């Protein structure tokens, strides 16, 4: 009797560990995952061009320096999600009778924040450095006629 109970307990522990990977969303398609703009909307709605780096850093302390170009610096914000598709789950369940987890994939989204003279002039996709007109118009040293 004790042997049967310990075998049943071991089987239950093993099976309960199976299924989709922990901390991973199960989706039909990657497009079902949240965008970085949605996931970080509370932060991003407060970011304005012209703000100082210190103001930016208070809002987004996890952003880090990722590149420098001429007199500009770019800081990167990363949003990463783990996921597995329903199709991968179905194949895994058929092939192994649910005894093995499929590997989670990672979906990484990145936005860069471009600073010139310690002020934000633009933010968006990586490697989309501001044009000179964007820098002049948002520079803290620009005159009112340049803005």
C-alpha geometry: elongated
Quantity of strands, as a count: 5
Total separate domains = 1
Helix/strand-derived category reads: alpha+beta
Helix content: 25-40%
What do you see in this structure?
The structure is a single chain. The chain is α+β, with helices and mostly antiparallel strands and 147 residues long. The chain has one domain (2-138). It has helices at 2-16, 36-39, 41-44, 53-59, 86-96, 132-138; strands at residues 25-27, 64-69, 72-85, 105-116, 119-124.
Please describe the structure with a list of short key phrases separated by commas or semicolons.
147 residues, alpha+beta, five-stranded mixed beta sheet, 33% helix, disordered C terminus
Draw up the topology in text.
Blueprint: H1 2-16, E1 25-27, H2 36-39, H3 41-44, H4 53-59, E2 64-69, E3 72-85, H5 86-96, E4 105-116, E5 119-124, H6 132-138
Summarize the structure.
The protein has 147 residues and is an alpha+beta fold. The chain has 6 helices and 5 strands, in the order H-E-H-H-H-E-E-H-E-E-H.
